[in-house]
């Protein structure tokens, strides 16, 4: 494997906060999900006291994968199928079969599952890091201004983060380096071109003024903007256009739209129904939490590197507890839209970019939009705002990438 | 929104339909000619077989307007994201299309700028182990195993699983009312599946 790729596993996917799971996926004590932290296989568990642990899914005996399920409930222990070594969901080694053969001095506490030492949650989003300094400072320090944007995303989804629940995942492989995917997440320049099939189809079938059509033409004169939130996090805000009037009215019609609109209106009245319709439509926010969590509409896109040229792009969908069932049906049918009509064309270009980057004689790509146009403004919190088509997203996260890759920070497994 | 013709409405996708889809899914898994006393008469069986074979072939040949004609006005095309499938009111699917969104999908491809299909993806469906039985009213249910070989950019890829159909007769012509495509790797990483499965 490439030297850089392996270094990224240590420096980026080890030594900064990496998103792993949403609290709703391990809502009950003794539940778990199996995830990747970069290339590391980990089990994210909630113990019987509701504390969250991130355990390396590698038996301390012979190295076998201990947990071979993707998720589960009522699992206080994990038993390795190979020799029956058993671990609590806190990682503690609980039992070694026929341990007398290891001699009198055998101490099974030396064989606890290795743990990612720092685990922190911000309003339902669970992150972990191996980095001591970052771990001690906590997730809020790392998120900086992006925490306010996460709050806004939660506000769009009803305001109560405990009511937001993951409702399944669409998983795709992309034959490109993980950064080709991350590049796109804050790119306000591409929609007019990359999404032509979506834009043309929508125009033909539903007329003007629909989804994403505000990206056609002079986008930099729109009130949409792009931001560097610090620590590699960035934000692209479509809301000034998308939510100028009703975003729901712009949305391509979802299956069952008319019946759901009628049903909800009858159930809760027109005004409340209207609120629910907007909540069912994407948040209009592309919020990118470096290195692997992207808020896109009402979905969470999680990027996991598999090899230099292969990445896992998983779209976790969300629903909301304590709203009428029809709201969530509408949300799900909406969240299926972009992955069918928009993302495939982007993915084709991520793959094409990665191909182009294999040309050995050419080292550079360009990311200089609005670097020399003096349009950027920095506020008192250090948040830099640029125009929507700016490459500020790429420049910001690559600056963080470079800083991390060059750091001599210490990391450790617990 | 423009074009509010009745064919473009989606009133038929309601709770009653979702309930029906979940019942169908259970029947496709459990029932069949072995358990059902209601065998399909030979003429209908032959017509239904022609329909599902044509539907697969027209998708392969990218004759997408004729492919759409295989479906009824109130149809559902459904690719679950879990295996076995769960209720689409509670969990995201890979694709869940009514007639209108199915037409959107075809229209997107027909723009000629759907870059996920440039160069064109060639597919070949093979349907096997097809079973037919009489469903509710005049509906015929069918279930088959499928293998799709998909060629993109010179590389072959195999998709497989089983498919459930609800087939109905409209003005003397059999149509697909529901097609549910159960990929055996529905809950695993998917590649570019922007063709019709």
Describe the structure.
The complex is a heterodimer of chains A (414) and B (197). By secondary structure, chain A is an alpha+beta fold. Chain A folds into two domains: 3-124 and 130-135, Rieske [2Fe-2S] iron-sulphur domain (Rieske Iron-sulfur Protein), CATH 2.102.10.10; 144-406, Naphthalene 1,2-dioxygenase Alpha Subunit, Chain A, domain 1. Chain A contains 14 helices and 19 strands. In chain A, the strands form four sheets. In chain A, strands 11-17-16-15-14-13-12-19-18 form a nine-stranded antiparallel β-sheet, with helices on both faces. In chain A, strands 4-3-2-5 form a four-stranded antiparallel β-sheet, with no helix packed on it. The mean pLDDT of chain A is 96. Chain B has a single domain (12-183), classed as Nuclear Transport Factor 2, Chain: A. Chain B contains four helices and six strands; from the N terminus they run αααββαββββ. In chain B, strand 5 and strand 6 form a beta hairpin. The interface between A and B is large, with 48 and 50 residues.
- What's the CATH class label of chain B? Alpha Beta
Q: Please report the total strand number of chain B as a whole number.
A: 6
Strand percentage of chain B lies at 25-35%
Structural class based on helices, strands and sheet pairing of chain A: alpha+beta
- The first-to-last residue Cα distance of chain A is 26 Å
User: What is Rg of chain A?
Assistant: 23 Å
CATH architecture of chain B: Roll
Please identify the oligomeric state.
Answer: heterodimer
Mean pLDDT of chain B: 92
Total number of strands of chain A: 19
CATH topology of chain B: Nuclear Transport Factor 2, Chain: A
Q: Profile the largest sheet of chain A.
A: 9 strands, antiparallel
CATH topology of the largest domain in chain A: Naphthalene 1,2-dioxygenase Alpha Subunit, Chain A, domain 1
Identify the CATH homologous superfamily of the largest domain in chain A: Naphthalene 1,2-dioxygenase Alpha Subunit, Chain A, domain 1
End-to-end gap of chain B: 30 Å
The assigned CATH architecture of the largest domain in chain A is: Alpha-Beta Complex
| SSE succession of chain B | HHHEEHEEEE
Largest interface, with counts of residues having CB < 8 Å to the other chain, equals: A-B, 48 and 50 residues
List the total number of helices of chain B.
4
């Amino acid at each position: 494997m490439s030297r850089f790729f392996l270094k990224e596993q240590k420096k980026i996917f080890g030594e900064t906060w990496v998103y792993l799971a949403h609290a709703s996926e391990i809502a009950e004590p003794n539940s778990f999900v199996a995830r990747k932290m970069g290339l590391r296989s980990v089990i994210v568990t909630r113990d019987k006291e509701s504390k969250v642990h991130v355990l390396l899914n590698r038996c301390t005996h012979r190295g076998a994968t201990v947990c071979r399920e993707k998720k589960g409930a009522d699992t206080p222990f994990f038993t390795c199928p190979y020799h029956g070594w058993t671990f609590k969901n806190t990682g503690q080694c609980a039992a070694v079969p026929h341990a007398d053969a290891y001699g009198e001095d055998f101490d099974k506490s030396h064989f606890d599952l290795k743990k990612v030492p720092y685990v922190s949650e911000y309003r339902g989003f669970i992150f972990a890091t191996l980095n001591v300094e970052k771990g001690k400072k906590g997730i809020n320090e790392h998120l900086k201004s992006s925490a306010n944007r996460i709050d806004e995303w939660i506000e769009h989804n009803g305001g109560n983060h405990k009511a937001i629940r993951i409702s399944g995942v669409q998983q795709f492989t992309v034959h490109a380096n993980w950064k080709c995917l991350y590049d796109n997440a804050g790119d306000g320049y591409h929609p007019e071109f990359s999404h032509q099939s979506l834009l043309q189809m929508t125009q033909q079938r539903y007329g003007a003024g629909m989804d994403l059509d505000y990206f056609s033409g002079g986008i930099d004169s729109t009130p949409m903007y792009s931001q560097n939130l610090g620590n590699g996090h960035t934000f692209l805000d479509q809301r000034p256009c998308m939510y100028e009037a009703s975003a729901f009215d712009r949305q391509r019609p979802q299956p069952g739209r008319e019946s759901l609109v009628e049903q909800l209106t009858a159930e809760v009245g027109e005004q409340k129904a209207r609120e629910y319709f907007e909540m069912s439509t994407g948040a209009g926010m592309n919020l990118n939490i470096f290195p692997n969590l992207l808020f896109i509409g009402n979905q969470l896109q999680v990027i996991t590197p598999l090899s230099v040229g292969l990445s896992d792009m998983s779209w976790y969908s969300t629903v909301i507890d304590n709203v009428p069932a029809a709201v969530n049906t509408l949300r799900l049918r909406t969240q299926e839209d972009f992955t069918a009509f928009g993302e495939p064309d982007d993915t084709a270009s991520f793959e094409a970019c990665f191909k182009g980057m294999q040309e050995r004689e050419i080292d550079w790509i360009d990311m200089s939009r609005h670097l020399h146009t003096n349009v950027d403004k920095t506020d008192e919190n250090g948040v830099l705002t640029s125009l929507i088509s700016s490459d500020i997203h790429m420049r910001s996260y690559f600056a963080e990438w470079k800083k991390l890759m060059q750091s001599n920070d210490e990391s450790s497994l617990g | 929104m423009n074009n509010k013709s009745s064919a473009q409405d989606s009133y038929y996708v309601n709770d009653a339909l979702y309930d029906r889809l979940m019942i169908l899914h259970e029947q496709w898994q459990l029932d069949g000619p072995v358990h059902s006393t209601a065998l399909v008469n030979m003429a209908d069986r032959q017509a239904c077989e022609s329909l599902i074979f044509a539907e697969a072939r027209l998708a392969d040949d990218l004759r997408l307007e004729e492919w759409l004609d295989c479906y009824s006005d109130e149809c559902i095309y459904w690719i679950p994201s879990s295996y076995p499938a769960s209720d689409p009111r509670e969990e995201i699917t890979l694709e869940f299309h009514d007639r209108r969104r199915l037409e959107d999908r075809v229209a997107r491809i027909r723009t000629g700028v759907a870059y996920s299909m440039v160069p064109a993806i060639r597919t070949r469906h093979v349907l096997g182990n097809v079973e037919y039985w009489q469903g509710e009213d005049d509906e015929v249910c069918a279930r088959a195993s499928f293998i799709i070989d998909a060629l993109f950019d010179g590389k072959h890829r195999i998709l497989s699983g089983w498919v459930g159909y609800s087939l109905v007769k409209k003005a003397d012509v059999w149509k697909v009312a529901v097609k549910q495509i159960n990929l055996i790797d529905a809950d695993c990483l998917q590649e570019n599946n922007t063709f019709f499965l």
